[in-house]
Structures are given as C-alpha cells and as structure tokens.
Write a structure and sequence with these properties.
The structure is a single chain. The protein is about 25% helix and about 25% strand. It is of the alpha+beta class. Among the domains are: about 110 residues, Ku70, Chain: A, Domain 2, CATH 2.40.290.10; about 100 residues, no CATH class. A hairpin with a 2-residue loop joins strand 1 and strand 2. Helix 4 packs parallel to helix 6. The longest helix has 16 residues. It is extended.
Length: about 300
C-alpha cells in the first residue's frame, strides 16, 4: 500500500548526537465522523457566524491578527514571524530525553493523538531501524518533546511493527490527581463467596483472542441510519428496550452473571443463557440455583417526532 503523500510534520528524530530525518502521518482518522450543522428552528436555515469588529463591521481573514490581553481591553499583537524567531532548530526535532519501560507511563496521560513516524529519505532508514530494533530488544519506550502545530508537546515513542508510533502525552499539570477522588471510596471487606464468584465471573468473561476490529462506533452508525431515514421521509420509531433483570442483591447478581458468562463461553444460545437449566452442568453446580427474577417482556414501540 502506498504511503500517503501528505505529511502532518517533518523534522528530525534526535538522540544525543544522532539525528534522523523523519516525517509524521496522523494515525487519527476522522473521515467517518458525522458533523451536524446548527439551523434556525423556525425555518431550518443554517446559522452563520460573522467575525465582526465593533468599530469597522465584518472582517476578512487577512484583516485578523492574534494578540494577548495583558490588561483590561489592552492587547499586544503577536505576529507569526516573531514566533518563528523564537524557535531554534531543536524545535523542529523530536528530542528524546531518555527511555523507560512502557509500564512507567500511566494511560491516564495519553492525550488521544498519535502519529506514525517514518524515516524521511534513504539516509535516515538505517539509524531509524537501529533505534527501533534497540527499543524492541530492551523493551522500552522513549520520552521526547517536540513542537507541533505551534505548541510544545510531550510525546512517547514506541515500536509498532516496522515503524515508530508517536503518542502525545498530557503534561502532569493538566491531569487531575487521583488523590482528589480516592477519599470518596470506602474500604470494604468481602465475604469469601463474593470473592470466589467474582473471580469465576472474570475468568469466564476473558476474551481468548481479542480483536479491536470487532468494535465500531455504533452511535455514528445509528446516526447515519437516522439521517438516511429522515432524508427518505420515513417515520422514526423508538427502538424496543429490554428491561434489565431485577436483581435482589449482589450475590444474586454475581450468581446469575456467572451462569450467563459460562453459558456464553460454552456456546449456549442467547435464549438458553437466561435459563440456568439449559446451562452446562458445571455452571449450575458452581452457581446457586436461586436466581433473581427477570422480566422478559419488551416495551412496545412508541412513535417519536422526527422533526
């Protein structure tokens, strides 16, 4: 497959005296997103926003500059050329500070933006591959800093197949500490049976071969379907809701969940999962037969306005 022609960023990957020319391609694909426009409720005309100067009215893009309010209603203009003068050659590089085990970085700090980092040209191919393989052999990731989109970013570099992936990280000052919330959680003691049933439930719910491709954004899928129906002029009907089983207590919930999880693991059809008698013998032996009652009735469809 051909490499996309448009890069998000070009620069150097620097480690001590080693400098590798690289180019970055965004790993985030937003092409499947659905964007809704704001409309006037009365006539469905699209709402428009104008950039207006209180002194001179509507403005064109070329008439707008950036500035900082240093005191009330007083601004200093910051020109892009002035910002460029502040930057050095190191600002155009992914500067590696060092290497750490991947487990040293809590996923809480992942900022949600990732780039594929590739060597830019033949000259960078060898040192790039050498660094990548070295990281694999030492089971480490790299911590680095880079200036992208005009902002300094903290990033993590990790091997991914034949490539390096650069993941943006939040600075610690931008992440609220867990200690702010830990006081809300009480220390609780458990009965041995509760612990055993929970471990059994987790064991029966383990995914043998995890494939992230089996997951998709169902909200976007449903939203696209809704738009198709609306365009076709069809009436929108409320989807039926399945009532959740009425669980009497935690033990009943655990026992019922274990039966369902083990039935699913054994390949028992969905309708049999709710019937402990048709579940595997070992599941029945491990979970108490006294289960919370469940309501199998579905709520009837009700019409909702599609406007």
């Amino acid at each position: 497959m051909a490499v996309p022609s448009r890069t998000s960023w070009k620069g150097f990957l620097k480690l001590s005296l080693i400098s590798v020319p690289v180019k970055a391609f965004t790993a985030n694909d937003t092409s499947g997103e659905v964007h809704l426009n704001q409309l006037h409720k009365g006539c469905n005309s699209r709402v428009k926003y104008h950039k207006v100067c209180p002194e001179h009215g509507d403005l064109k893009s070329e008439d707008i500059v950036s500035g900082y309010e240093h005191q009330k209603d007083s601004y200093v203009v910051v020109d892009p050329d002035e910002l460029d003068k502040l930057r050095t050659k190191t600002d155009r590089a992914v500067s590696i500070d060092g290497f750490v085990p991947a487990s040293a970085i809590d996923g809480l700090y992942f900022a949600g933006k990732a780039h594929y980092l590739l060597p830019d040209g033949v000259a960078g191919a060898r040192p790039y591959a050498l660094l990548r393989d070295g990281m694999v052999q030492n089971a480490v990731v790299a911590i680095a800093q880079v200036v992208m989109a005009g902002r300094e970013q903290l990033v993590m570099l990790r091997p991914h197949g034949r490539m390096l992936v650069m993941t943006a990280l939040h600075y610690p000052q931008r992440v609220r500490k867990a200690t702010e919330f830990e006081g809300e959680i009480e220390d609780i003691s458990f009965k041995p049976e509760e612990v055993a049933l929970t471990n059994t439930l987790i064991g029966a719910s383990k995914i043998a071969e995890f494939d992230l491709d089996t997951y998709s954004d169902q909200y976007v899928t449903k939203l696209k379907r809704l738009i198709e129906l609306k365009v076709a002029g069809q009436e929108i009907v409320q989807a039926p809701d399945h009532e959740e089983p009425k669980i009497l207590n935690l033990m009943d919930a655990l026992k019922k969940s274990v039966v369902q999880a083990q039935a699913k693991l054994a390949g028992v059809p969905a309708d049999a999962e709710s019937n402990p008698a048709s579940a595997p013998a070992d599941a029945g032996a491990e979970a108490d037969k006294k289960l919370a009652p469940s309501a199998g009735r579905k709520k009837g469809p009700r019409k909702v306005e599609g406007g």
